[in-house]
Specification:
With 60 residues, the protein is an all-alpha fold. It is built from 2 helices and no strands. Helix 1 packs antiparallel against helix 2. Belongs to the histone H1/H5 family. HCT subfamily. This is Histone H1.
Length: 60
């Protein structure tokens, strides 16, 4: 789970950097990169949800 969280963190940082570049500077290429990164983030977040639920069920 630690590795998964690290992957999410790296992707989220890249997304925020590119999204802010698009917002602040009007950088269209950065917007494209941000959209691509958001598509990569989605399955990682779904996987985190599954792993997190399994972890919380074991502790009950």
């Amino acid at each position: 789970m630690k590795d998964l969280i690290e992957q999410i963190s790296v992707k989220a940082e890249a997304f925020l950097k590119d999204a802010n570049s698009q917002l602040e500077k009007g950088n269209k290429a950065a917007g494209l990169r941000a959209r691509r990164t958001s598509l990569e983030l989605e399955p990682l977040l779904k996987q985190f949800r599954k792993v997190s639920l399994k972890a919380s069920e074991r502790k009950d």
